[in-house]
Amino acid sequence: MFKTFSFKTKNHAELIDITGMVRTAVKDSKVNDGTCLVFVPHTTAGLTVNENADPAVKQDIVAKLEKMIEWNDPEYKHTEKNSAAHIKSSLVGFSHAFIIHNGNLQLGNWQNIYFAEFDGPRSRSVLVHIMGK
Fold it and tell me: Which tens digits make up the pLDDT trace of 73-122?
């Protein structure tokens, strides 16, 4: 099963919880045991898995990436002026594979799946491919 989720981001940099979207796709697929591949088809966004209990974790991740990789570094050569977003996307990555067992997405107790926006606000999409039986 293949599913595309589209949405608009609101901020220049943010983490958006997409766990519910992915869980819904897994349930709709009727796959009992298999793999769920989540892919971000953008070069200035990414995908990460992290804590879902304290919203400060998301804020800390975004803040630290913003501090580590400055938006207006005079050494950047990219003419679109969004090199920082490309670098962050490369560091975070753009896909994750998850286990489906007994019809459920397997995540750790504190884990959620986050779309990572680094060049927003924009219209974005996430692709979910579910394989198994």
Answer: 899 999 999 999 999 999 999 999 999 999 999 999 999 999 999 999 99
Torsion of CA 128, 20, 46, 117, to 10 degrees: 130
CA distance 104 to 116: 24
Q: Are strands 14-17 and 111-117 parallel, antiparallel or unpaired?
A: antiparallel
What phi and psi, each to the nearest 5 degrees, are found at residue 78?
-60, 125
Separation of alpha carbons 51 and 119, rounded Å: 23
pTM above threshold 0.85? yes
Q: How far apart are CA 59 and CA 79, in angstroms?
A: 29
pLDDT of residue 41: 98
The CATH number of residue 51's host domain is: 2.60.120.460
Domain count for the chain: 1
